[in-house]
Amino acid sequence: MFETKEQLAQGVASIFRILDHWRLSETELRGILGYPFGTQLSDWRAGELGGITLDVIKRLGTIASIFKKLQSTPEAGTTWLHQPIPLFGNRTPLARMASGDLADLIAVDDYLKLRSGVDTSNPI
């Protein structure tokens, strides 16, 4: 996904812009990124990328994929992220993504793949 440290830094900065656009709470942000320890979150925001693991890199890619799929929805998916989805046990996609489990983040991405071409403003 990232071949150089510069590409990783640019990717991380882009992901933080996406996460900021989604107007997440601190808890949601930490959950989506796998509950980084101590100051890692603020360090990553500042471009200090020590402690970025393969798990985090997978999360970054999944976040980018979700964002890309939501580009055609109102507010680039911000509204959709807060709508309960029956398939998720009436939890919101954001609640699922913020569980801290990479599999839940991937499940939201997979759900959107299945919904490709379908209006995501009307949850199933």
From TrEMBL:
Q: Which domain of life is it from?
A: Bacteria
Q: Which organism is it from?
A: Magnetospirillum molischianum DSM 120
Q: Which named protein is this? A: Antitoxin Xre/MbcA/ParS-like toxin-binding domain-containing protein
The record places domain Antitoxin Xre/MbcA/ParS-like toxin-binding at 74-112
Its lineage reads: Bacteria, Pseudomonadati, Pseudomonadota, Alphaproteobacteria, Rhodospirillales
* Pfam families referenced in this protein's UniProt entry, alphabetically: Xre_MbcA_ParS_C
